[in-house]
Specification:
2 helices, five-stranded antiparallel β-sheet, mainly beta
Length: 202
């Protein structure tokens, strides 16, 4: 009843209640959250999710192939097929509807970046990830990502920005670790048959 009253008051005032965020929702579990990021393990189940607005820029990677139907605005829904190990992005303020369309469902780990804008560029020290590991496998204006395959390990490096490490070892739940800016460490070292991703936030 309280939510109904809130809706009616907003309608009377001529305002539309804000749409919900994309997460949490069925098929999605949180992996970690702090003031800098929220990390979600997402499955697109065969159901239509509510119309929602992304509050934050989003980056991540798929790890199980699958299909989605994405509807935005007045355009008809479009079927999107995503392979495993494809980088994922979305922007703050995007509003759309999603629906899973495959069995098994597409799965991905998605990182919501809570800072409103990228940090100011800074000179990279000799032990920065870019200097010791080379060019990232993927990059946009909010993050850069490196891949560490099984049989290898991330070299000792310093994080210029906050970072999230994702480790996929064949289990049903990927592992996520947050590393604040300035952290110096080695790794990750994925298990045999696994892989890891290092996302450094800009």
């Amino acid at each position: 009843m309280r939510w109904l009253n809130v809706f009616l008051l907003a309608a009377v005032a001529g305002q539309t209640p804000p749409l919900p965020p994309p997460f949490p929702r069925p098929g999605t579990t949180p992996l970690l959250e702090n003031d800098a990021v929220a990390v979600w393990n997402v499955s697109w189940l065969k159901q239509q999710y509510p119309l929602h607005t992304h509050r934050y820029d989003l980056v991540g990677v798929s790890y199980v192939e699958g299909d989605r139907i994405i509807t935005q605005g007045n355009a008809p829904g479009r079927l999107v097929t995503t392979k495993a190990w494809v980088f994922q992005t979305n922007r703050a303020n995007v509003t759309h509807v999603e629906e899973g369309a495959s069995d098994p469902p597409m799965r991905a780990v998605l990182i919501e970046v809570k800072t409103a804008a990228p940090r100011a560029p800074a000179e990279e020290p000799a032990n920065s990830l870019r200097q010791v590991a080379g060019a990232p496998a993927w990059e946009n204006d909010r993050a850069a990502a490196w891949v560490v395959m099984s049989g290898s390990s991330g070299p000792t490096h310093r994080h210029l920005g906050d970072a999230v490490e994702l480790v996929f070892d064949g289990s049903t739940t990927p592992k996520a670790t947050f590393l604040p800016a300035g952290t110096v460490h080695a790794g990750p070292t994925p298990a045999d048959g696994g892989r890891a991703y290092i996302f450094e936030i800009k």
